[in-house]
Amino acid sequence: FTPLRDLAASKGIAFGFAVDPSRIRADVAYRDVVAKQANLLVPENALKWAEVHPDPDRYEFGPVDDLVAFARDHGQRTRGHTLCWHRAMPDWLGQVGRDRAEAVLTAHIRTVVGRYRGRMMSWDVVNEAIEPNDGLGGGLRDSFWYRMLGPRYLDIAYAAAHDADPQAVLCYNDYGLEADSPWSERKRGAVLDMLRGLRRRNVPVQAIGLQSHLRLGEAQRIGPGLTRFIHAARDMGLAVYVTELDVDDSAFDGRGDRDGAVADTYKRYLDLVLGTGAVSAVLTWGVWDPDTPHRIGATPQGAFAQRPLVFGREGALKPASWVVAHCLERA
Ligand code: G3I
Prior knowledge:
12 helices, about 15% strand, binds ligand G3I, alpha/beta, about 325 residues, 9 strands, 8-stranded parallel barrel
């Protein structure tokens, strides 16, 4: 089984995982699979405000410093996630009012991005800013930073990140863009309009991240709308990344082969996105199947849903492993 990092690299594609830096230190099997299979790593939670900036005057860089060193030692690159999001916010931000919001946001971004200058190939500067149900202009989400600064929080965040690391590719990351549906068409349109506006204002956004949280029952809805969307992003000069790939298999109907259905969902999605020739990175949201089943939603059989990944526990090969390898070989 050729390591996925080598298959990907031979096509000029980065392949990797969202990782837990503390687990890389503590779990030898985890560390070995990460070292062997990936050439791009992202900390799953360690660069979110709640973890990296837990108090107004305290930053916690230890875990990410370790991860960046591990990546360097294993010929891997790292990417940052995420600087501006409505979740994983520390309580102290609640005391920040409109008068101080811009200073607090830019200081955080300059400090965090500046520390890893030249060592993060890209950053999810803004994550999940589009939520058409919130009824705000441009489909923007009614989030903390929106309420503090209005739509220009995006301009502020990308400018601060670019000042702190001009080499980093600055990315806009979002979910719900993958399966063709009236809802995702609406979201895709709002995302593209927002990105066009930023680019028109010379805001330094250079990539789009498709989180790619797939669902088992949606495989047949992965189709031409997604291809058009990726082409539109490419035609704007944006790099396109698959940033958080996994499959929610809670819709599994209990019949047939669960692993095969999951593998088919990965195949269908990766064949399409890699077929556009515009995708230059594929990251899965974790390294191997979750050890503890976690309830995503009540499943028909009442069983717990998993988010099966590309490898089984402890890095065991499974149908999805071979499927992803073949997709990378064909890219
Ligand atoms: O580490 C603390 C622990 O010390 C504490 O005891 C425990 C109970 O409060 O919380 C632990 O932190 C949890 C953290 O995951 C680490 O396990 C947080 O509560 C929990 O909210 C956090 O969930 C993460 C979630 O984002 C929110 O940040 C998930 O692991 C992570 O997979 C998920 O990832 C997001 C992406 O960042 C953005 N796209 C969607 C994706 C899935 O939701």
